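Sequence in, structure out. Go.
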Amino acid sequence: MNILVTGGAGYIGSHACKALAAKGYLPISYDNLSRGNWRAVKWGPLEEGDIADAARLRLVLEQYQPAALMHFAAYAYVGESVAQPLLYYNNNFAGSAALLATVLDFRCIPAVFSSTCATYGVPERVPISEDHPQRPINPYGHSKLFVERMLSDLQVAYGLSWVALRYFNAAGADPGGEIGEAHDPETHLIPLVAAAARTGDAVRIFGTDYDTPDGTCVRDYVHVSDIADAHVRALEHLLKGGKSCALNLANARGYSVREVIAAAERVCGRPIRAEIAARRPGDPPVLIGDASQARALLGWRPERSDLEMQISDAWNWMTRRS
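Output:
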């Protein structure tokens, strides 16, 4: 069974492709490679193209006749979204609208959407459950929320079935070492601290005056392989006629920036220098999720929730490919 995976050359998309292949699906990676890596496409064909290019996308749909869509293609830097909001609204929202218009014109197939906890904004309570108000504080979060709302409207109008997965901070790398995180520029904390352990360069801590136990931001880290597994489970839920919904992917446990640095020092066996920098715009102090609905509906349980395990996988992949 062919599955169209937009952004299949990206960090999370490529891990989802591996998970799909392990379950017997053929992932068709559709990626413009503006931020993806063609070397990460290993479990099915790569079709280069933009999600807004209707003619190119239609050719791919006709060729492979996919049974479902997994939509990862998006820009995902919070700070960049604040500095360049139109870039995010054009790509993440308008691009998704164009993608869905082309797909619906081809056939109404189920869609699994890669959403984000950034749709919640600054939480009123933690852990955050799916019924928490969605009030994003940055254009990245707004762009993802707009797509969620569009999916809901398309279900009413066209019968589109969908699952939006609002995951918290993706972390780690493929335990088998075949793929990992390689953004340029890199902004995620765990690969940054792992790189700092290798090079001796300092890692920056953006803000030490948050209302948290040690003054630094607290985040809920979810292993990328667990996120990939949830996407496959959501796909199979829809293929069996399951209801459309939005679900959190989280471990319900938060770690501060300083705690991540300390854990990385233990895993890597090296000291890590830190420099204090100003807060980044659009960063909430604490994000911790409640994933009980994903457990109940999909049978999803994270297998690699331990922070040191996540750092170890990222470290092993980084040192292996160097």
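Check: The two ends are 36 Å apart (CA to CA). The mean pLDDT is 95.
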